[in-house]
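Figure S4 source data
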Amino acid sequence: MGLSYDRDLTPAGRLIRFWSGFDFIQILGLCLLLGIGLVFIYTTGEQVGTAASREFFDKQIQWIIAGTILFLTASMVDYQRPEIKILSLFFYLFSLVLLILVFVVGVKVYGATRWLNIKPLGLRLQPSEFAKLAVTMLLAAMFSSQLFAVNNLRCFALGVLTVLVPFVLVLKEPDLGSALILLPIFASIVFVAGLK
């Protein structure tokens, strides 16, 4: 979506344009899924009855709040601006660094090393989640650029490489589920970009 910074609009006009750009049916579905998830976590915690189970519920609330703030912040960005497209490349490289760090300082949970502990914040991050967003942003920036034509073999190959590097890193964690999600992301973007 992205917020268009029209200088002719008043602040109230910008706010109205911002809110009118949302797909409220999609947001309602998202809220329903989040609510169902919270109910499952809460009822499981009630059955187990331990302090650790209550901690899962509290952490889920924290992630919902953080995700909502991130969603609203991201929706205010005008993604057509060239500097945002350049930032998507840096975010992609940053996500690759995080994926590599998993093999150096990652935390093993349930037999797989997929997490990074951020001790000052008391958080545990899964870099593969950042990789999904980074791949989406970079592919969208690439194939919306006039320099890239999805039906050009070199451009298409560069798109494949963009997905292949994080795919292999995530697969080695091992996390087959997260790695496989990168494939429909790629397929969707090249389809929208007009792949013949």
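Figure S5 source data
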Amino acid sequence: VPQMVTDFFFFFDCVTVSNITYTGANGAVGFFDGGLSNAGLGAGLLLTSGSATNAIGPNNSGSQTTSSASNMGDADLDALIPGFTTQDAAVLEFDIVATEPTIEFKYVFGSEEYLEFVGTNFNDVFGFFIGAIGDTLQNIAFIPDTTVVVSINNVNNLAFSEYYINNGDGFTAPQNTDPQYVQYDGLTTALTATANVVPGQTYHIKIAVADAGDSAFDSGVFLSTESLCGE
């Protein structure tokens, strides 16, 4: 995983990255090329609560699942969704130094929990945390123009539906036969996590996704190589 992250940031001259760590299942993270898919992004890293290969389309299953052997959750993600406990967390952390005052990460969150488990106890969640070294990390992954975090119960066909894409249920055409459709039953539109930083100062970043309520039904976040430097 450290090599994958290094390769991911190879595309950018506005940041340097160090101290890369990963906590989670070995198969939960991978590169993706979404150019021929409906993921809404070109290419980048995929971080999941199960298996990265489970995201590959077509969407011919309504319940793709891979559970981590440890089933470990993440306290920072738990704090984003009070009343829920996370499992199968995949957590990527690293330090970053930017040469520009703003950095942006474009991402898409998807899940097999959609739509049948919206509004239930299964509230899978994504968080993007950043803070200067020594400061408390703050989540910056929100539904646009809000402070609402990105989770199953918060963005769907009923809540902030303008940012939600129905990707089928795993049993109906064209999603279950056409490989351009990723496996997840629902996706957000492409969203952006933006941070204002002091150029030359070191910041710690933590990117995490997890199941919530149980360890079943994968969720994942596609992190794009696009627009990190605000270009």
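The mean pLDDT is 94. The radius of gyration is 16 Å.
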